[in-house]
Specification:
The protein is mainly alpha-helical. It is built from eight helices and no strands. The protein has two domains: 4-70, lambda repressor-like DNA-binding domains (434 Repressor (Amino-terminal Domain), Orthogonal Bundle), CATH 1.10.260.40; 75-123, no CATH class. The longest helix has 16 residues, at 4-19.
Length: 133
């Protein structure tokens, strides 16, 4: 399970990297860290990143370590962090956020189809299905 701080740092690294127009391989080249490590960092799976690693990432992104750790986040960023913490998947979190942003534009029929698809998917996840008893 990911910690809220690890997820927040990961999300800040991800958002800052995207804003800088960098890919993970590009950031890996700039930092000397592996793409695999950066992927885990962005997903909040590195519970205690080394100070030197955070410094390398921050410098490559034109930020300070303090900005990556304590930077104010927008309500959208806060929601992304919360969704990522709950789901463990940044891509799923971004998709859910996009869905929430566009929900009011969907027709009632599209909303119902979407809800059904979400419920069906969640029911198939371990520990989420109907009680077998």
């Amino acid at each position: 399970m990911t910690s809220l701080l690890a997820t927040r740092i990961g999300m800040r690294v991800y958002l800052t990297r995207i804003a800088a127009g960098l890919t993970q391989p590009g950031l890996a080249r700039r930092t000397g860290l592996t793409q695999s490590y950066l992927s885990r960092l962005e997903r909040g799976l590195v519970a205690n990143p080394r100070d030197s690693d955070l410094h390398r990432v921050a410098c490559a992104l034109g930020r300070t370590v303090e900005e990556l750790i304590t930077a104010d986040t927008s309500p959208t960023d806060e929601l992304l962090v919360a969704l990522t913490t709950l789901s463990g998947e940044p891509a799923l979190s971004r998709s859910l956020l996009d869905l929430a942003r566009n929900w009011s534009r969907l027709s009632l029929a599209d909303r119902n189809r979407t809800l059904y698809a979400i419920e069906t998917t969640l029911a198939g996840l371990p520990g989420r299905g109907a009680d077998p008893s």
